[in-house]
Automatic annotation (TrEMBL):
Gene3D superfamilies: 2.60.120.830, Thrombospondin type-1 (TSP1) repeat. It comes from the Eukaryota. The lineage of its organism: Eukaryota, Metazoa, Chordata, Craniata, Vertebrata. GO terms for molecular function: metalloendopeptidase activity. It is found in: Secreted, Extracellular space, Extracellular matrix. Signal peptide: none annotated. It comes from Limosa lapponica baueri. PANTHER family: ADAMTS A DISINTEGRIN AND METALLOPROTEASE WITH THROMBOSPONDIN MOTIFS PROTEASE (PTHR13723), THROMBOSPONDIN TYPE-1 DOMAIN-CONTAINING PROTEIN 4 (PTHR13723:SF16). This is Thrombospondin type-1 domain-containing protein 4 isoform x1. Residues 595-632 form the PLAC domain. One of its GO terms (cellular component) is extracellular matrix. Its main location: secreted. InterPro entries: ADAMTS_ADAMTS-like, ADAMTS_spacer1, PLAC, TSP1_rpt, TSP1_rpt_sf.
Length: 642
């Protein structure tokens, strides 16, 4: 876009134009920097480098991902999905730029490698985007990108652009002075020739006025051709030695603290009066180049750097969230993490806070209590308890407060259970080999859980544990004579042993038995002792038989049988083939009908009535009642055949 201005001098009106300056520093040039960073380029002089870092990492800590070369532009380093890992950036010299030395920086803009990097770290709960580094470039040194590995790598996408071979470096364009040679060639358009120089000289002669009223036109910035409607620009008058450049001060410091930069300011002045004049009076080629100077070197006051809040610890209800609070100081355009005591002059922000994303679901009791699991004694009962959202949907129990969950199981007492005496079979052996002895069995009172028998308790009628036995008379002995101990009354467990102890007198070839009082002055040996052969292990026990279900014509009776171990607890180790019967028939005899005193035979020959089958008639049935009734009981249906 062009605009014209009219300036009157010496009665003449000259028209000159102001035009934009291209990336090549020439007035009126339309050249721009392409994506490769090349002035006037066509986007073909560079190469796009991209890829994805998908390596599986095992060790925690810093792992190098990619190297960004010098001169790279359009840099994009992006984590492919959200994770607990962090990206880090440092120069080849080892200087940390972002997230170095295990200190996590806040998202923001960070200078490094001659360009400005934008560090992004999405923190929204619903966001799935990962971290990223973005920079326009170009870089002026090699940079290394790292990942601080803490969980499986989701993948890191990297991309940057580098110039191709024999391409003018973008840095040259950014730092060269107008008119300086570019890659060994003078930075003037090829169409510039000596005719242009003559035009400059003619213009100088024509004006004869102070160059201060004209815009400064520096050498080498003329366009390559003159538009038809444009009047040639006027060249400033030649400078003389009456004027020179003088430093009159410095620019304002770029920062108020923490090491900023400023530059000296040079103006054109009269050598004698030191009065400031237009810069056109001085030779621009002799103007000193301002050099950067450090200023305000004292450190800035420390401040609390407040990070973003973490996700809420609970998806519903009251939870906690955290944020990182670091004490930081600015110095040399960099933010450094320092000891927290430097921020003691400031109140430290809270690092934790309560949060609530939504109202939690609630517990609901869906069913009543079930019946008790046992018919007697202590059992359990249950009910259905569900976690229900505020929309009425059944959700996982974790959605509700587990501390407030109603019980879905509890004990129940159905009262005392019936009890029965449980017995083993009698032992096979008599305690004495001859004479009187005993056989034994085990007796225990047990709770009856499953039997439907009308048992109300064990009571005081404990069945006997011993019964007498006799294997025949024994031979006589001499004095107090103790016979051999009998076998143990039980094959296992606790039992008793017996032996014969008699008072005898020894005679020649025989013994005479005496009355016990004849040996009373002697200590009598014991005739019985306890014995224990081995643990019995599990044995079958059973209750007494129940009452028969019928008094005649075949009923049945039952008893409960259990397998018990030595400590009288339930066991499954008994031999099933030795299990006593739990049910047996009883009262198999025929039923005897009740005798009716009025049912009698009125005739002596009623047997003839029976033989003639006349009992079917009412007269004979009454006259010979006893005989007809008796035959009817033996032959059902006898009376009803006619």
């Amino acid at each position: 876009m062009q605009r014209s201005a009219h300036t009157r001098f010496d009665g003449m009106e000259q028209i000159f134009s102001y035009q934009s300056i291209g990336c090549d520093d020439y007035l009126g040039s339309d050249k721009v920097i392409d994506k490769c960073g090349i002035c006037g380029g066509d986007n073909t002089a560079c190469k796009v480098v991209s890829g994805v870092f998908k390596h599986t990492l095992t060790n925690l800590g810093y792992h190098k991902i990619v190297e960004i070369p010098e001169g790279a532009t359009k840099i994009n380093i992006t984590e492919m999905s959200k994770s607990n890992n962090y990206l880090a950036l440092r120069s080849r010299s080892g200087r940390s730029i972002i997230n170095g030395n295990w200190a996590i920086d806040r998202p923001g803009r960070y200078e490094g490698g001659g360009t400005m990097f934008t560090y992004k770290r999405p923190n929204e709960i619903s966001s799935t985007a990962g971290e990223s580094f973005l920079a326009d470039g170009p870089t002026n040194e090699v940079l290394d990108v790292y990942m601080i590995h803490q969980q499986p790598n989701p993948g890191i996408h990297y991309e940057y652009i580098i110039p191709g071979d024999n391409v003018i470096s973008p840095q040259l364009l950014a730092h060269r002075r107008p008119g300086e040679p570019l890659n060994g060639q003078l930075g003037m358009p090829e169409s510039t020739n000596h005719e242009d120089e003559d035009l400059h000289r003619e213009t100088d002669t024509l004006t004869g006025q102070s160059a201060g009223t004209f815009p400064v036109i520096q050498p080498g910035r003329f366009p390559s051709h003159q538009p038809e409607n444009q009047v040639p620009a006027v060249q400033p008058p030649r400078q003389n030695r009456e004027y020179n450049w003088k430093q009159i001060g410095k620019t304002e410091c770029s920062t108020t603290c923490g090491k900023g930069s400023q530059y000296p300011v040079f103006h054109c002045v009269n050598r004698i009066t030191h009065e400031e004049v237009s810069e056109s009076y001085c030779d621009s080629s002799t103007k000193p180049i301002p050099e950067e100077e450090a200023c305000n070197l004292f450190p800035c006051p420390a401040f609390w750097d407040i990070g973003e809040w973490s996700e809420c610890s609970k998806t519903c209800g009251l939870g906690m969230q955290h944020r990182q609070i670091l004490c930081r100081q600015m110095y040399a355009n960099r933010t450094l993490t320092v000891q927290q005591y430097r921020c003691h002059h400031l109140e430290k922000p809270e690092t934790t806070s309560t949060c609530q994303l939504k109202i939690c679901s609630e517990w609901q009791i869906r069913t009543e209590w079930t019946s008790c699991s046992v018919p007697c004694g202590v059992g359990q009962r249950t009910r259905d308890v569900k976690c229900v959202s505020n929309l009425g949907d059944i959700v996982d129990d974790e959605e509700c407060n587990m501390k407030l969950r109603p019980n879905d199981i509890e004990n129940c007492d159905m009262g005392p259970c019936a009890k029965s005496w449980f017995l083993t079979e009698w032992s096979d052996r008599c305690s004495a080999e001859c004479g009187d002895g005993v056989r034994t069995r085990s007796v225990v009172c047990m709770t009856n859980h499953v039997s439907s028998l009308p048992l109300e308790g064990c009571g005081n009628n404990r069945p006997s544990e011993t019964t007498s036995c006799n294997n025949g008379p024994c031979a006589g002995k001499v004095e107090w004579f103790a016979g051999a101990w009998t076998q143990c009354s039980t094959e296992c467990g606790s039992g008793t042993q017996q032996r014969e102890v008699i008072c005898v007198r020894k005679t020649e070839g025989s013994f005479d038995v005496l009355n016990p009082y004849e040996c009373s002055y002697l200590e009598k040996p014991p005739s019985q002792q306890s014995c224990y052969l081995k643990p019995c292990g599990s044995k079958w026990f059973h209750t007494e038989w129940s009452t028969c279900s019928k008094s005649c014509e075949g009923g049945f009776r039952v008893r409960e049988v259990r397998c018990l171990s030595d400590d009288m607890t339930a066991s499954t180790q008994c031999d099933p083939q030795l299990k006593p019967e739990e049910k047996e028939p009883c009262n198999t005899q025929d039923c005897i009908p009740e005798i009716d005193e009025n049912c009698k035979d009125k005739y002596y020959n009623c047997n003839v009535v029976v033989q003639a089958r006349l009992c079917v008639y009412t007269y004979y049935k009454t006259a010979c009642c006893a005989s007809c009734t008796r035959v009817a009981n033996r032959q059902p249906g006898f009376l009803g055949r006619r």
